């Protein structure tokens, strides 16, 4: 049981630069026709801030929103702030 517990608490990366598949082609006519918003969560320990910034740089959204002190589950850690953010974005991009 101890070995299993150690495996479960060991930090592991979900993504790596080496695992990115380049065979998928997204065109501006299709994928680019939908407004994309990225919500940056500065307390996220699953997708650390550096990786979130890498995602933004390599696939730029139309808008980046930052919810201060939010973690990976923004809807649980900052539900009121997320609600305000979504209302604001709905008005802006509707």
Automatic annotation (TrEMBL):
GO terms for biological process: jasmonic acid metabolic process; salicylic acid metabolic process. It comes from the Eukaryota. One of its GO terms (molecular function) is methyl jasmonate esterase activity. PANTHER family: METHYLESTERASE FAMILY MEMBER, SALICYLIC ACID-BINDING PROTEIN 2-LIKE. This is Alpha/beta hydrolase fold-3 domain-containing protein. It comes from Brassica oleracea var. oleracea.
């Amino acid at each position: 049981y101890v070995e299993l517990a150690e495996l479960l608490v060991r930090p592991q990366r979900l993504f790596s630069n080496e695992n990115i598949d380049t065979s998928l082609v997204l065109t501006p006519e299709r994928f680019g026709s939908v407004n994309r918003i990225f919500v940056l969560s500065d307390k996220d320990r699953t997708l650390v801030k550096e990786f979130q910034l890498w995602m933004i740089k390599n696939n730029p959204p139309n808008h980046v929103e930052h919810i201060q002190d939010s973690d990976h589950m923004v809807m649980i850690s900052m539900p009121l702030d997320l609600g305000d953010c979504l209302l604001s974005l709905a008005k802006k991009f509707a």
